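When time allows, look over one protein, given below as sequence and tokens. The question is which stretches look regular and which look disordered:
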Amino acid sequence: MKLILHSPSSSSEITDIYKQAFSEAVRLYVVSAYLTEWDISLELNSECKKFRVIVGKDFGITKKSACLDLMGWLPAERKSQFLVADAIDGFHPKAIFWIDKKGKSFSLVGSSNLTKAAFEKNYEANIYSEISKNEFTKAEKWIMEIEEQSVVVSEDWLKEYQERKPAPQKKKSKTHTGEGSSIIALRLPNPSGSKQQVKIRRKQLAAHKNLKDSLENYFLECSMGKISSSEFYDRLPSVWSWESGNRLQGSGWERKGKASNFRELSTSFMNILNSRSDDRDDVVARELDRLKASRNSARKAFLSEILCLTFPDKYPVLNKPVHNYIADIEFRAPQGASEGAAYIDLAKKLRASLAQNPKHPAKNLAELDTVVWLEYGE
């Protein structure tokens, strides 16, 4: 353990530790109550498999310019990995946790936010230490709890966020200050008949539970080359169909998707299925980007539906009604986001919106999908 006491007259060891962490980490988490500066000279290890920056919004102290700097610094595939604790009031941690290629875990915890003053002008006290594997796992679980109440920082979020004015006004402002309830919540459709549609969807999800193991076994066999891509396609109706009661979307995909490379798609699905729950969003984004690069036509409507059936609380279906819905509410992912990052951004914001609307008939994203169909389907 090393005690780092910073003053305006001392050199910044904190800066050096950040550079070390970013350059060597294979898993890296940064949490800060405020973000007012982002060092664009930081270079993230290309082998970093898990990366999160989560900042707070309380009192409007986080600066939009710093957020934009960080967003611009992130590559396309990592645009969904910069989050704000949107649903948390009293988010005040100042910490960084990482594990390096040798398996050693470290932390820097103390008084320093991600601000220029903290690194240069302020009197700050921090503790830098190697930590045990158990302690790092404990930190990851804590980060995961925070992430469940966070959303991706996008231009849309920044538009709604009210940064604190340099000089406080004498009279109370009626505008949102960034303190209190969450800033962004997507408008959820709730047309007449939604409750009945949700009941039907619950029957479909129940039917899928009976077919889930068989479907996943087909994915496994295809990924291993035990059955061909065409055999996989031919077997699909026995485990995913309207007759079986577990197909969610309308017709059309079976014609467009027949020529898809299902072995490649099956490999992606198995990677997602076998991933750690706290890594799954990253794996989903990565696999979608990989499938897009190979122009796999089944990556959207088909794979997203399978993800929605398998993880109904986590992932939405990408179909025409959903595209109509997000166009209507003018949802936009962070500028320059990859396809996978944009999908995770949508998933996170839909999760957060449902959590903020407990009286909505839908209780998960699979149930919300049928409400979207009712409102936006043809």
User: Anything to note?
Assistant: Residues 168-180 have pLDDT under 50 and may be disordered. The two ends are 62 Å apart (CA to CA).
